[in-house]
Amino acid sequence: MKNIWIGCIIIGLCCATVSAQDDSSAARGEKSENTRQLSGVFLEVQHLINNGLYKNRVAISGLAASLSLTERAVLTSANKKQKWPAVLNAAFGFGFGSWAQKDIAGGLVGTIGDTLLLAGNVTMIALLFKNHIDDISKITTDPVIFFTETIHREELIAMCALAASTVVFRILQIVYSIIHPTAYNNTLTRVLNTSKRPLQAGVVSVVGIDKDNYPQLTISAAVRL
């Protein structure tokens, strides 16, 4: 009888061990499946960001809710735009800084604008040489007389306008390449919900009561918390 009891105890322990192993394997399998699903969501969010943060911000915000804070922080860090390309816009123009920031619109505007201004300046210089070829030597000997007496007033105004336009457009490129990444990064942080101000909405309702204690008017307003 004693041997029978010992045998039963051993069998019970074996069954408990097998059951625990099965539960552990099932838990690991479920965790792996969840990890694969989250990895898929992570990649999908990254794909949507690549295709356009602003146009996909609603879809990104919905998917980001299923990601962990660490994953959202990784996405935020990986997709943030830097401000240092503003130096390229300052030094070279032609939208180089915007292209470095992967800002297609800013890059196109900078490239086209500086190309047109360069063409205008080159054309202006060529016309000056053509119209005043005999007086070109005065540029080095007496530039004040050349610019005040030799060239026409209309030519001087056109030169000043082109020079001012070139300087102003270069300044605008610099400012834009600083403002654009700031706005983009703020939107990215807000959409991925990694900021201190979560992307949530609350509802405030105001109910009017008449003299008989019946609701008379309800006004609802959605607010961002």
Q: Care to describe what's here?
A:
The protein has 225 residues and is mainly α. It is 71% helix and 8% strand. The chain is built from 9 helices and 2 strands, in the order αααααααααββ. The chain has helices at 2-51, 57-64, 69-79, 86-91, 96-100, 104-131, 138-141, 143-150, 153-191; strands at 201-209, 215-224. It has a two-stranded antiparallel ribbon. Strand 1 (201-209) and strand 2 (215-224) form a beta hairpin. Helix 1 (2-51) packs antiparallel against helix 2 (57-64), helix 1 runs parallel beside helix 3 and helix 2 runs parallel beside helix 9. The longest helix is centred in the first third of the chain and has 50 residues, at 2-51. The protein is rod-shaped, with a radius of gyration of 35 Å. The protein starts with a helix and ends with a strand.
What is the structure about, briefly put?
The chain has about 220 residues and is mostly helical. It has nine helices and two strands; from the N terminus they run αααααααααββ. The chain is rod-shaped and about 75 Å long.
